[in-house]
Amino acid sequence: MRIIVTYALVLTLACSAKAADVDWKMYGGASVSGPSFCFYDANSIARASSGHIRVWTKCLAQKDLDGVDIKSDLGTKIVDRAARKIKEGYVPPIIVIGKMDFQQIPEIVAYEESANLSAIDPQARIFDEVDCSERMMRRLNTSIQANGQSGFQNKPSDWEYVPPEGNGATLLKILCLTR
Questions:
Q1: Which of 144, 154, 149 is nearest to 124 (CA)?
Q2: DSSP-H helix ranges across 34-166
Q3: How many angstroms separate the CA atoms of 118 and 136, rounded?
Q4: Of 94, 75, 96, 119, nearest to 25 (Cα)?
Q5: Domains of the chain as residue ranges with CATH
Q6: What is the pLDDT of residues 9-30, one digit of tens each?
Q7: What global pTM score does this model have?
Q8: What are the b/e assignments for 55-86, b being 16+ CB within 10 Å?
Q9: Which of 106, 110, 94 lies closest to 27, judged by CA?
Q10: Could you give the residue ranges of the DSSP H alpha helices within the chain?
Q11: Residue 174 DSSP SS3
Q12: N or C, which end of the chain is more exposed by having fewer CB within 10 Å?
């Protein structure tokens, strides 16, 4: 019995450590296999001497985010952390750059905390590289899970100019303003 309790404690601590290592911030939406919201991990941002920025992103299905039971232990933790951040004056980067309205802060912060704490499987997980000075982006690693199928690309894509609208433009604006 003691072994089972020890194992459960170690597993709980490992999950808590994993959750503490990420800081997912919403930057847009997509339609992978239904509506989803996309996030970048602020803790994974790496700035190279070349000026390029590398960051992990993921997209989570809106139905999965909305499906978190706020009365569960996880739901209570998400609500508490979101309320604390808002009380402390946190404003999500997507609002700071003017892509969404201030009235949406509670919902966005709750989604960000759900992305941080929940075990929702991403529909897409992408490792992006951004060149701020040239307004270009490329994908270094891509994994897609949609409609029961999965795809993976571990080869960097070619550099592409970022159009003035869309998720790429929003991510570029957030990352390049904070460097």
A1: 144
A2: 62-66, 73-87, 93-96, 105-117
A3: 32
A4: 94
A5: 23-177 (2.40.128)
A6: 333 434 444 455 899 999 998 8
A7: 0.83
A8: bbbbbbbbebbeebeeeeebbeebbebbeebb
A9: 94
A10: 2-20, 62-66, 73-87, 93-96, 105-117, 167-177
A11: helix
A12: N
